[in-house]
Design a protein that fits this description.
Layout: H1 8-20, H2 25-31, H3 36-44, H4 51-60, H5 65-75, E1 108-114, E2 117-124, E3 133-140, H6 142-156
Antiparallel strand pairs: 1-2, 2-3
Length: 178
């Protein structure tokens, strides 16, 4: 195993799948909601994708079942620990999280759009080690993104200011002097 590129075989396969779909790094990374830089490192074989990201890539590329085991093996994962053994291959896990009503403020955003939709990563510039920290991630269809843009434009448009009429000045003819 190459110490500098320990996952080169996996990365090469994933890059070929992306190229076969004729998609850019930005398109695929946006679809699976990771940074393009992270996908580049995976494709070069420098980094191994997490199990979740590998699952998303397998799904996104519509990898045939007979090839899925090979990808898991190349990534160094034991498939039996992923919940993807034959008895569960058609099940879908759902995670329900309670809504957090706090407002998170952001000073950066990273937006990726492709033919499938738009992913927005809202970040704070002062994360760990000075790197931007994602505080919220939102994905939506292109149509929904267009409606969101229209709503933002309306919300940010200057408000029409309505002034009360100026008070009338007293008429000189009605002014009485004693």
């Amino acid at each position: 195993m190459n110490k500098e590129y320990p996952y080169k075989s996996l990365g090469t396969l994933l890059r070929r799948m992306r190229e076969k779909k004729q998609e850019t790094l930005a398109e695929v990374s946006g679809a699976v909601e990771i940074d393009a830089e992270q996908l580049t490192e995976i494709e070069r074989g420098i980094k191994r994708p997490s199990e979740d990201i590998l699952l998303l890539l397998i799904s996104y590329f519509s990898v045939p079942e007979e090839d899925v085991d090979k990808l898991w093996e190349l990534a160094g994962y034991d498939r039996s620990h992923t919940g993807l053994d034959a008895s569960h291959e058609n099940s879908q896990q759902i995670m329900v999280l309670p809504m957090d009503a706090r407002v998170v403020y952001t000073d950066m955003a990273h937006v990726v759009a492709n033919k499938y939709g738009v992913t927005m990563n809202f970040m704070q510039s002062m994360g760990l080690n000075g790197k931007p920290l994602a505080v919220a991630r939102v994905g939506m269809s292109r149509e929904h993104a267009q409606r969101m843009l229209e709503l933002l434009q309306k919300a940010l448009a200057p408000a029409e200011i309505k002034l009360l009429p100026a008070p009338k000045k007293p008429d000189a003819s009605t002014d009485t002097k004693s």
